[in-house]
Amino acid sequence: MTTQKQILVTGGAGFIGSHVVRLLVNNYPAYQIITFDSLTYAGNLSNLKDVMDAKNHTFFKGDITSEQDVKAAFEQHQITDVIHLAAESHVDRSIEGPMEFVHTNVVGTVNLMNQARASWKELDGHIFYHVSTDEVFGSLGDEGFFTETTPYDPRSPYSASKAASDHFVSAYYHTYGFPVKRSNCSNNYGSNHHPEKLIPLMINNILNKKPLPVYGEGINVRDWLWVEDHARAIDVIFHHGEIGCNYNIGGWNEWRNIDLIHELCKIMDEELERKPGESAELITYVKDRAGHDLRYAIDATKLFDELGWKPSITFEEGLRNTVIWYLNNQDWVKEVTSGAYQDYYKNMYNQR
Ligand code: NAD
Ligand code: DAU
């Protein structure tokens, strides 16, 4: 049994990873938290600025697909556990270039597990926690929910790569007795969310009076969860979930895209003291995403019944907090939307 935890959090400089690192650093002073991140366009050390220099936090710049980088991190920090979030995470980018997703999400995950197996002499007492997505289950119609036993049916290159990584994690458990835990979560929102994703993109465009690009008819449904509640769920599962088990995490909070965008416009009109309805005039219907999944909805009953987790705040509170965070953190927004983002935006949206 290991007593002192030295947890490698991959992707810790990204959106969800930074919230996981912050929670662990603040709540577990006896643990050493090692953020492992290669700082792609989606990783940003300013996401960690309040915990970066904490006594129980270290940053390691490395690539999960590099045997050398991962080995060095394990050796230098005597890693006892891994919480694995590093990934290419944006569906639209996966449609443009799938191979990067295969490399990072599949090869990277297997490379991490191989190093953990090589380093952990006895597997007992260690945890490899794989953070995954509800998109692996495919697309729902108007009825029903994804449960832990829903068959996999990924439909985008992103979700196919996450599904493949989930299968490898499960295969390592069954084949080698490797100590894995996994969770599949719905759409997150909150601070430090990259403005390539729906909610921050809309907030930024409303602020700058730019068109609000709604894919297709805007009738696709997503189940939104406050990112800090996802981090709390990961904490609970990491500490109390069963080895070899998977848990679904969701907000019981389904919204059609168009309704959510109207809600954001309303909040922004209020916060910016615009006349009611002004921001909604920016709504522009554009060409749909290829293979656009209609509806995701998570049944998180297992997590609630077995481990007592449930979301802590309402969507109304969370969405307004998020809008206010973006309005108050325009330096962060400018940093992540300069340079390469402008090229990305032109390529992605001019062709729609
Ligand atoms: P993100 O894109 O914001 O962050 C990804 C992080 O991984 C970045 O810091 C990036 O620099 C890092 N990274 C990418 N490739 C790397 C590599 N080769 N080596 C090391 N680091 C690398 O992603 P996110 O939205 O925070 O998602 C984190 C995880 O949670 C992903 O595995 C994603 O599939 C999963 N997930 C996301 C959501 C969501 O709504 N965002 C929902 C469910 C599950
Ligand atoms: O369900 C969990 C997944 O949620 C995560 O695994 C992914 O990493 C994360 O990116 C997210 O995927 P989505 O594709 O659901 O998120 P995105 O913010 O890209 O899009 C949300 C919805 O909004 C989707 O139906 C597409 C639509 N959309 C998106 C953008 C960026 C638009 O209508 N216009 C846009 O400009």
From TrEMBL:
A GO molecular function held by the record: dTDP-glucose 4,6-dehydratase activity
UniProt keyword Heme present:
no
- Set out the biological process GO terms recorded for this chain's protein: nucleotide-sugar metabolic process
NAD(P)-binding domain span: 8-322
What EC identifiers does the entry list?
Answer: 4.2.1.46
Keyword annotations for this protein, in alphabetical order, are: Lyase, NAD
The cofactors required by this protein are: NAD(+)
UniProt cross-references to Pfam families, sorted A to Z: GDP_Man_Dehyd
Keyword Lyase appears in the UniProt entry: yes
Q: Which reaction does it catalyse?
A: dTDP-alpha-D-glucose = dTDP-4-dehydro-6-deoxy-alpha-D-glucose + H2O
Similarity-based family: Belongs to the NAD(P)-dependent epimerase/dehydratase family. dTDP-glucose dehydratase subfamily.
Query: Under which name does UniProt file this protein?
Result: dTDP-glucose 4,6-dehydratase
Q: Which organism is it from?
A: Fluviicola chungangensis
Taxonomy-wise, where does this protein's organism fall, top ranks first?
Bacteria, Pseudomonadati, Bacteroidota, Flavobacteriia, Flavobacteriales
Could you tell me the gene encoding this protein? rfbB
